[in-house]
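Page 37, continued from 36.
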């Protein structure tokens, strides 16, 4: 946002706001030189009337002006979430505000002008309590999925800054837990996040750096393959296979995968599921080819075969 616009914003006074009553707020149509969404960001700082502008901003989430203006509202976004993280979550009372806030946070995370500030403010850490929830009720699943969507929007940019930040947090264990026990859609988004981390060289090296990290990832992926053999999902299987293929690019991980890759990926278990998906079939063929190539065994990283459960 330009310095000129910032100066205009700083000079806005509450005289621009017309209050009809304590529940409804209407703004003048035009504040010269300032995007129309900005007054709603001002009102978000008022604890008494925060919910109404939050809803209005949620409707405007695709507005590029709003994305830039929200760069100046990080404290408000954190304030909206923190009360619900610091105590019992009252679903009927807090669900609307929390879900709308998460939509705005995803908007900020996906915008190139606000992403760096978003990471510098450690806003993603506010989302992790929602990723830690285990309730399978629809509202909690929605909050969990929306929080995953924010992280997904970050990793989709393929920016090194994003991966470096995430590797300093607990995002990988959180994603692995959801990949094991979440809904199909949550599993898909969580696996996509892991895939994007693995596709980054730093992320791949991080996961393959220790036996504990690699074995945890391999164990969860193996369990997912076994589950997918019973209830097949082409969308989820695609991300699982891509994760395996990327792991096979690391020599130590490749040696371990020769021992622990599930048999269901070696036989015709998923032939029907992948019949019309040429890219995923190619990835699977490439994975098997990588594992068939001869290489000296590295005894530092080995895993026993996964048993069917």
């Amino acid at each position: 946002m330009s310095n000129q616009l910032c100066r205009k914003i700083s000079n806005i006074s509450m005289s621009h706001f017309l209050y009809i009553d304590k529940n409804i707020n209407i703004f003048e149509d035009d504040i010269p030189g300032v995007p129309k969404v900005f007054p709603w960001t001002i009102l978000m700082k008022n604890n008494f009337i925060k919910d109404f502008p939050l809803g209005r901003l949620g409707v405007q989430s695709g507005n590029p002006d709003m994305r830039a203006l929200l760069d100046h509202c990080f404290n408000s976004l954190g304030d909206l979430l923190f009360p619900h993280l610091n105590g019992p979550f009252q679903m009927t009372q807090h669900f609307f505000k929390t879900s709308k806030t998460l939509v705005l946070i995803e908007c900020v995370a996906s915008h190139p002008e606000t992403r760096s500030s978003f990471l510098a403010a450690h806003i993603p850490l506010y989302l992790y309590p929602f990723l830690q929830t285990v309730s399978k009720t629809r509202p909690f699943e929605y909050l969990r999925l929306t929080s995953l969507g924010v992280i997904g929007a970050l990793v989709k940019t393929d920016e090194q800054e994003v991966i470096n930040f995430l590797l300093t947090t607990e995002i990988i264990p959180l994603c692995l837990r959801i990949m094991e026990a979440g809904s199909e859609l949550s599993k898909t988004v969580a696996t996509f996040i892991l895939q994007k981390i693995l596709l980054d060289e730093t992320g791949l090296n991080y996961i393959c750096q220790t036996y504990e990290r690699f074995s945890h990832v391999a164990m969860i992926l193996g369990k997912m393959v076994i589950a997918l053999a019973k209830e097949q999902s082409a969308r989820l299987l695609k991300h699982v296979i891509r994760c395996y293929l990327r792991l096979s690019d690391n020599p130590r991980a490749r040696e371990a995968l020769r021992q622990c890759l599930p048999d269901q990926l070696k036989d015709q278990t998923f032939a029907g599921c992948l019949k019309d998906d040429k890219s995923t079939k190619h990835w699977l063929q490439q994975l098997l080819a990588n594992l068939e190539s001869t290489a000296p065994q590295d005894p530092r990283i080995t895993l026993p075969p996964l048993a069917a459960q």
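Residues 1-161 form a domain with the Leucine-rich Repeat Variant fold (CATH 1.25.10.10). Flag for discussion at group meeting. The CA atoms of residues 3 and 9 lie 10 Å apart.
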